[in-house]
Every structure is written in structure tokens, then in C-alpha cells.
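Sample entry (459 residues):
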Amino acid sequence: MKIVNRTSWVFTLSSAIILFLFAYAVYFFSELNRQEEFVDRLRYKIIWRAEFIFDAQVQEHQIRRIHEQNKKLINEAQITVFDQQNRVVFSDIGEPTYPDVKLESFKTSNFFTWEQGKELYMGLNYQFEGKPFFLIGHAYDLTGFAHMERLKNILITIYIVALFFIFFSSFLFARYILKPINYIIHQIKDVSEHNLSTRVSYSNAKDELSELIETFNNTFNRLEKSFNNQRHFVSIISHEFRTPLAAMIAELELAQQLNTNVDEYFNSIDRALLDAKEATVLSTALLDFARANYDSSQVNFEEIRLDEILLEAKLVVLEKNKDYRVSISFDANAAIDEEEILVSANAYLLKVAFANLIENACKYSADRHAQVLLSRNKTVAQVQVKDHGIGIDSKDIPHIFDLFYRVAGTPSKEGHGIGLSIVQRIIEMHQGTVAVNSTLHVGTVFSVKLKLAYPKGLE
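Predicted structure, serialized as C-alpha cells:
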């Protein structure tokens, strides 16, 4: 069921319940009011007739004639008068019969009522010349019941008409409220993987729908960026892998066709092995980049010592190249103990990030030396990776974290422009920051800041 129909039915049902309770309350209290008014009228009728009989001394046949005449115009009460011995003194209806229990109850109660069928019965004590008499009158509230029947029909009619009106108006109102959503749906239908540049437009003032549309557009922005990155990623991968694989195939084909001795075969095998290693390094870097792009909610975080991660990253770099040198030091101005360098992180990913920074520092330094400095303040731990290498031009700094971007003037260096992209994504995943400060022909410093697991002031 569509939201328009569901909204209309829900609103109509809730309104129907409220209207029913209101109509029932009106009818219920009107019925109470009718009963109270009829009791007062019947009591007045009985007393008025008793005054005719005792005080005015009107003849019985005249009283009955008046009674019969009134019955033609209104529903007149039927009156019976008893003396103290329960004998009938006067009656409009001949010789009535009442249970002795009812008659005896007059002696203990001056006034009481009961219902029999649709008629109301009333008993009264009446004193005349010091003698007690007992009056019983009964009548059917013809006018009152007619008014209540008319009121019931009016309430039912109004109730039914109101429900139709409420359903129709709520349907129109729901369509009006949801009209922008239908407009949004039609616009979203035009969005596909081939047309991610389409955005949803909405010209009304700031409201919940504008927030929803803004969320949609932000999602499309991320999706478009992700798809573009994916296309770029796939095209670059195919190109980057093609280079070492093509070189490897060429070496093997030349070896097969031209090599004539063992030394030539060994040379060809060495060159093919280097191309295979380059392909392996590239595939490892791409795998690390894919892991760095995981949803952070799906990555396992735990409290780890930052100094231990740096030591492990150092070992990883030194295993790749024995000529590299890495020195790790602590800030002399801050006393650092185990608790003060605990961070919430994924150990593998953080090790990959620092290993990339250290390896780059060694690679682009003439002395193959990277200096790592660990420090902290009240809430943040900072790792600085410094080298005395060729530096980075200021025009290249805004792009060094872009995927597959390589600084001009470094084509001879090994690498594919993936490492710094991996570093930035991993640090962002850990809600940290990475910054770079570089001077050409002097050196480069990468600064990584991560939140401490247990922030506290320095001693």
C-alpha cells in the first residue's frame, strides 16, 4: 500500500475513533440529562395531581376527565393514591396492583424510583391534615425518547459524513505533502552508474525534505567519486601491470629466440625476475590500498603501543632493503611511558602506513636515512618522519596524496604513486591527520597525529 493511501486510512481511523468517543459522550450525557429532567417532571406531575385531589378537593370524575384530555396532547402520568392501610384512595387506571413490599417501603423512604419496561415509576409520601398518604405515579417519556432518537440519528449522520470528508481531505493533504517525494523519485530514477552526475533539485525552504535531498546529493557525490576512482583505478592498474608483464614477456621471448649460452640465459632470467618482483610489489601495494579503503566500521580496532608499531614498521623497511637506515627517538621534553602512547588502532594498517612513510624517506634520501620522532601533548600523539632528500616542490604538495600521482623529476625512483594514498586513507580511518612540510634539496617532514587512548596532562 502506498504511503498516500496508508496515511489516509490511518488518519481516518484515528479520527473515526475520536469522533465516536465524542459522539458517544454527547449521547451519554444527553441521556443522563433526559433522565434527570423526566424525574423532575414526573415528580411535579404527581405532586400537582395530589394537590388537585386533597387541597383543591376537585371531584374524581373531573380529575379523570382532565387526565384523559391531557393524554391526547402529551404523555400524561398515571397516578394512584394509597392511605396508611394501603387502600386505594384515588387511581387513574382503576384498581392497580403493586407488591406489598413496594407499599411498605414508603413507610421508610419519602421518595424512590424504579423502572419497569420503558416506564419510570415513582413513589412519594404526601401529608394532608396530619395524615400520611402514599402516591405512586408512572409514565413513559415519549418526548424525551423521541428527542434522543432524533439526536442519535443526527450524530450517526454527522459521523458518517465526517468520515467521508476526513478521508477525502486527508488523501488530498497526503498527496500534497508527498508530492515533493514523488518529484524526487522521478529524478532519482534518472540516476545510474552511467549518469552519476545527476543531482536532485528542490527549491522550497529548509525542511526535512531538503535535508533528505541534501543527504541524497551527498551520497551521489560520494558514489560518483567512488565510481570515478574505481574507473581510474582499473585503468591505471591495467597500465601499471602491463608494463612489468610486457617487459617480462619480452625478456623471455628474447631469451627463447636469441640467447645462445648460459650467461645470456642467466641475464634474461635476472631481468625477468626483477620485472616479476616489481609486479609483486605493485600487487602488494594495491592490496594494501584496498584494505585501507575498507569501511572503518568493519575494521577491528584495539589499544596498541605506538612505539611498538614504529619498531615493527622499521623492521619491515629494513627487511626490504639492507642499505636503509632508520633511527627512532622520543621527544626529550616529554616523559613518555607505556600508557601515554597507547592509541586505538588497527595494528596491521597502522604499520603499513608508517612503513610507507619510512620507506619513502629512505628512498628519496642520498644517505638512505630516515629519522622518526615520537612525541605527545595532552591528547594527541605525533609521529614525524624526516629525511634529508630531494624535497618536494610546493606545486606538487597538494597532489602527493592522490592515487598514482608521482612527483615530477622522480621517474627513476622505484614506486607507483600508491604509498602516500594508502597512508592518508589509513590515518583518516584512525581519525587522525597527516601533513607534509618540504623544502627542495633540503628535505621533507611528514607529521602524523593520532588521538591518545588515555589523554592526560604532562607531569
